[in-house]
């Protein structure tokens, strides 16, 4: 993979991660230019997909993540399972050359408090119930870790309305009627690293598991931010703390159905083609709620 391929990274959700390529990135800048400046135009993209590079990013962005990344090949003789190594050694096994593990690393640097909590739940559940079969809690944690999204929402009335619309899978209300609220009172953030990987080649059908989180006005004040990238970049620690608190206080992973489905490409501005009425009318993607 070379820089001729990197343009596919410049979708809106992936640009939320742009600050990790260059802390000085301005809103709307392209990831491509930032990487070239950092690594050189003749660099192969695969050279970035390493534990070494993630550790460098952690240092340069002054991440408060206390864990470090290690190449998984160094742990080939370690009998412990993945979550156990993270919990006991404070290291994150990372396969070289994989976008999946690379995006997982960026999520540790961004939402480290939340990720550490999910790791802790894996350990607690496996010690209490064993590794096999997975418990309901571990399944929910895994699904959120891989495919989760969060809508940080300001306003009790808006939050209540969104819960009702998602319960009914009323996509017209969510994406069309409330379009003006997105990226202002509704801040969407992808958490799942598998979804980031799939967003490299987005396709109709790409869906995440979304959680709605009430958010103070200070985090979503457009006067203090300059677009969704800057809002997320400047205040990611606060978002992490808010999400971590929400997960604990609401015992989210203990619920039977803690998440709503979300057609990711329906989020305003998150699809490379026109988001027309016909687009949202595709019932194979924007599926109506199943009735008994």
Automatic annotation (TrEMBL):
Pfam families, alphabetically? Answer: DUF3025
Q: What is this protein called?
A: DUF3025 domain-containing protein
């Amino acid at each position: 993979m070379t820089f001729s391929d990197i343009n596919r990274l410049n979708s809106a959700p992936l640009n939320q991660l742009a600050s990790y390529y260059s802390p000085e990135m301005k809103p709307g800048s392209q990831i491509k230019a930032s990487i070239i400046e950092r690594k050189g135009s003749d660099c192969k993209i695969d050279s970035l997909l390493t534990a070494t590079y993630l550790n460098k990013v952690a240092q340069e962005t002054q991440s408060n993540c206390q864990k470090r990344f290690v190449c998984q090949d160094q742990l080939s003789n370690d009998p412990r399972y993945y979550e156990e190594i993270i919990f006991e050694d404070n290291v994150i096994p990372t396969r070289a050359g994989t976008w999946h593990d690379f995006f997982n690393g960026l999520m540790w640097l961004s939402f480290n408090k939340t990720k550490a909590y999910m790791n802790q739940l894996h350990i607690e559940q496996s010690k209490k119930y064993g590794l096999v079969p997975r418990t309901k809690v571990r399944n929910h944690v895994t699904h959120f870790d891989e495919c989760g999204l969060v809508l940080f929402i300001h306003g009790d009335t808006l939050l209540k309305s969104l819960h009702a619309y998602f319960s009914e899978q009323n996509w017209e209300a969510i994406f069309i009627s409330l379009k003006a609220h997105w990226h202002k009172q509704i801040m969407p953030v992808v958490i799942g690293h598998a979804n980031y990987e799939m967003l490299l080649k987005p396709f109709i059908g790409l869906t995440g598991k979304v959680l709605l989180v009430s958010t103070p006005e200070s985090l979503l004040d457009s006067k203090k931010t300059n677009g969704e990238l800057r809002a997320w970049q400047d205040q990611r620690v606060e978002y992490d703390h808010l999400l971590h608190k929400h997960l604990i206080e609401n015992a989210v992973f203990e619920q039977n159905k803690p998440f709503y489905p979300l057609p990711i490409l329906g989020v305003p501005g998150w699809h490379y083609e026109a988001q027309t009425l016909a687009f949202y009318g595709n019932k194979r993607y924007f599926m109506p709620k199943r009735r008994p």
